[in-house]
Amino acid sequence: MERHCKNCDHMLYATHTHCAHCGAKWIEKRITMRNVAADFGDLYIGLDTKFMHTFVDLFRKPEAVILGYVQGRRMYYMDAVRYLLLSLFITGIYVFVLKQTNVMEDYMADSILTADTLANYSDEQIEAQQKFASKFLDYQGLLLLFTIPFLALVGRISFWGRKFFNYTEHVVFFLYVYAHMIIFTTPISILLAYLSPEIFLYWSYLALAYLLFHSAQSYKRCFQLTIAETILRSLIALIVFVATAVLLMLVFIFTVAITVIVASKMGYDLSGFLPAQT
C-alpha cells in the first residue's frame, strides 16, 4: 500500500517507517505523553543527539558546527536559532529561580548594609539599587537578543574582507557562541547562587572572560588564523567594541536630549509624560 509523507507529501511505501525524502517518521497512532517524552529525549537528553553533538563540538571543533551551518550542512547539529531558543529557555529558568528565592536580592541587601560606605547610602539609593538588580534580571532574555547583533557588528568590522564572514554569517557565529556560553555557564551560576553568592559574582566575570576566549578560539578555527593573527584581531575587536559602544551611547544620549527638548517645546510635562496643565 502506498502512502504519502505527512511532512513533505512524497510517496512512502508500506514497508518503510521513515520518509526517504525528508527523513520524517511515519506515525499512525495518536500521540501520548510517552511519545512526547521520547521525542524530548531524542532531541536533548541522549548522548547521540543533535544537542549533545552541538554542545560537545562547540568545545572541541567549533568550526565544524558554525561553518557546517553556514555552508548548509545542518543534519548533524542543532541549527543556530534552536540553540539560541534553548539558551533563552535556560535563561528563563535562571531568572525564575533567582527571583523566586530572592537569593541575590538578599545578598545585595546584606552587602550594602555591611559596606563601609553605608553612611553614603540613603534609603532611596539602596531601594533603587535593588530595583535595578531586579529589573536587570527581568530583561536578561532581551539583553541576550540585543547583544548578538551588536557583537556581530563588532565582528564584521574587526574581520573586514571578502575571505571572512558577512554580517549575517557573523550573526550565526554569535548565535552559537553566545548561546553556548549561556548554556554552559547558567547551570553553574544557579548552583553557585545558592552555595556562595560571593563566588557567583566572580563566576559572572569568568563567564564574560570565557566568552571572549571562546569567541577568539572559534574565529581562529573558522578562519584558520595563526596565534599572532588571533591576538591582533582580538585586540582590534576590543577597540572596536569600546568605540562602537561609546558611539551608540552618544547617539542614545543625543536622541534622548532632542526628544526632551522637542517635548518641552510642545508643552509636555516630562515627569509624568502627560500634557502640562495650563
Produce a short descriptive summary:
The protein is mainly α. It has helices spanning 33-45, 50-60, 62-70, 80-101, 103-113, 123-138, 140-158, 167-195, 197-223, 227-265, and strands spanning 2-4, 11-13, 268-269, 274-275.
Oligomer: single chain
* Helix-strand category: mainly alpha
Q: What is the CA-based Rg, rounded?
A: 25 Å
Question: Overall mean pLDDT score?
Answer: 78
Largest sheet geometry? 2 strands, antiparallel
- Our measurement of the CA-to-CA distance between the termini, rounded to an integer number of angstroms, reads 82 Å
Principal-axis shape: globular
Percentage of residues in strands: under 5%
Side by side, the strands of the main sheet go 1-2
Order of helices and strands: EEHHHHHHHHHHEE
Query: What is the total domain count?
Result: 3
How many helical stretches?
10
Are there runs of 5+ residues with pLDDT below 50, and where?
A: 274-278
Task: Find the count of extended strands (DSSP E, 2+ residues).
Answer: 4
The helical percent reads over 70%
Question: What are the main properties of this structure?
Answer:
mainly alpha, 10 helices, about 280 residues, two-stranded antiparallel ribbon, 3 domains, two-stranded antiparallel sheet, 4 strands, disordered C terminus
Question: Would you write up a description of this structure?
Answer:
This protein is mainly α and 278 residues long. It folds into 3 domains: 1-27; 47-225, no CATH class; 227-278. The chain has 10 helices and 4 strands. The protein has helices at 33-45, 50-60, 62-70, 80-101, 103-113, 123-138, 140-158, 167-195, 197-223, 227-265; strands at 2-4, 11-13, 268-269, 274-275. A two-stranded antiparallel sheet has the order 1-2. Helix 4 packs parallel to helix 8 (167-195), helix 5 (103-113) packs antiparallel against helix 6 (123-138) and helix 8 (167-195) packs antiparallel against helix 9 (197-223). The relative contact order is 0.08. Residues 274-278 have low confidence and may be disordered.
